[in-house]
Amino acid sequence: MHPILSLEQTEVVSLPPGAWLITAPPGCGKTEVLARRIEQILSNAERPKAKVLVLTFTKRAADNVVNRVHARLPGQAQRVHAQRFHEFCHELLRLQAPEHLRTVYERRADRIDALRIALETEGIAKEETELAGLLDRIELFKKTLAAESLGPDDTIDSDFQTVLDAYSAQLNRMGACDFDDLILGALDVLRQGDWPRDLYRQIYSS
């Protein structure tokens, strides 16, 4: 017995092709709606081998989507390519720009250590208790693409800019990157021109 969708959920599933931003609170059935949306795309695809790319924050969510599609459309799960955001970006860089691929510091403790070394190297005095907050600010700055939203007359706090530059330089010296760098690196590759953007559109096109 499959869950019955509400009117609003049914409308989301039935939206025409295009870019849509859907916001919803936890526990409201987003995974089920996403799975149904994928099933509709696969069923209505003009290309019988068309694939759907699904990006999630966790492996569990990615597996959940594939399993739901498989339960209702046996034999079609192989057409659903579900990955975590960072996993997809890492794969994209490995295939399209391997020269930019670096070791990912997945553990927060490793990123804190890199920040500590960066500050010591540049002679920037910060208390140990400040490091976690500084790292949070750096990661928020990068993941929200804050640098791109700055106008010609906008400026970044000079102290924060110095810390940000020191941290980035230290990661480069270590041949490392954080999760946000993976996304920014993949974004740079996709912005370089029609290729390889068109390549992925061809693969994941109905």
Question: What this model shows, in words?
Answer:
The structure is a single chain. With 206 residues, the protein is mainly alpha-helical. It starts with 6 loop residues before the first helix and ends with a helix. It has helices at 7-13, 30-44, 59-72, 85-96, 108-122, 131-143, 158-174, 179-190, 194-203; strands at residues 52-56, 80-84, 103-104, 176-177. 56% of the residues lie in helices and 7% in strands. The strands form two sheets. It has a two-stranded parallel sheet.
Would you kindly provide a brief summary of this structure?
The protein has 206 residues and is mostly helical.
Sheet bearing the most strands, described?
A: 2 strands, parallel
Strand order, sheet with most strands:
1-2
Helix content: 55-70%
Unreliable stretches: none
